[in-house]
């Protein structure tokens, strides 16, 4: 295997090579095009190292997903079968009888809610003593107001 290059360097070399080839297409004669593939081979090596690095990160994330809290890690399909990827977990489904029971219970709740009459708040009535106290307090306030305005004028 060839020596691994930093990814950024490989990308810059590849980008410069492509831009030179694209920009000089109309200016260079056909026989003068370079036939050296070393830059492309270096790019392939760089991308392969990126694939390995990213695959390691994906494996780490999948390992973390398999654990449930501080307790024992959940046995995933990957650990059981020995593969590096886990398939989707089987979802539980409700049978027809279960769905029918849920629907019947919901219909019963709706029927009970419709049968209850809407409760209107009771109208409050003022007692005679309360009305008399309000009238006296109002007369007292008006008397104080008139007295204050009469002395100011």
Please provide a written account of the structure:
The structure is a single chain. The protein has 153 residues and is mostly helical. Helix content is 62%, strand content 0%. The protein has a domain of 75 residues. The protein has five helices and no strands. The N and C termini lie far apart (109 Å). The relative contact order is 0.05. The model has no long low-confidence stretch (mean pLDDT 78).
- The multimeric state of the shown protein is single chain
Major beta sheet summary = none
Q: How many beta-strand runs?
A: 0
User: H/E element string?
Assistant: HHHHH
Average of the residue pLDDT scores:
78
Binned, the helix content reads: 55-70%
Number of helices: 5
Ends: how far apart? 109 Å
Shape: elongated
**Strand portion, in percent?**
under 5%
The SS-based structural class is mainly alpha
Low-confidence stretches: none
Summarize, please.
This protein has about 150 residues and is mainly α.
SSE blueprint:
Layout (H helix, E strand, L loop, with lengths): L6 H17 L14 H28 L11 H5 L14 H20 L12 H25 L1
Helix pairs in contact: 1-2
Give structural attributes:
153 residues, mainly alpha, elongated
């Amino acid at each position: 295997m060839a020596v691994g290059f930093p990814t950024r360097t490989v990308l810059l070399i590849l980008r410069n090579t492509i831009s030179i080839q694209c920009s000089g297409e109309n200016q260079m004669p056909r026989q003068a095009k370079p036939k050296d593939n070393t830059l492309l081979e270096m790019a392939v090596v760089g991308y392969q190292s990126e694939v390995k690095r990213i695959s390691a990160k994906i494996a780490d994330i999948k390992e973390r997903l398999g654990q449930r809290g501080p307790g024992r890690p959940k046995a995933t399909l990957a650990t059981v079968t020995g593969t590096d990827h886990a398939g989707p977990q089987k979802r539980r489904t409700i049978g027809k009888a279960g769905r029918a029971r849920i629907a019947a219970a919901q219909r019963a709740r709706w029927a009970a809610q419709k049968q209850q009459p809407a409760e209107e708040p009771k109208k409050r009535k003022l007692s005679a003593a309360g009305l008399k106290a309000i009238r006296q307090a109002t007369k007292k306030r008006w008397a104080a107001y008139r007295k204050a305005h009469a002395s100011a004028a």
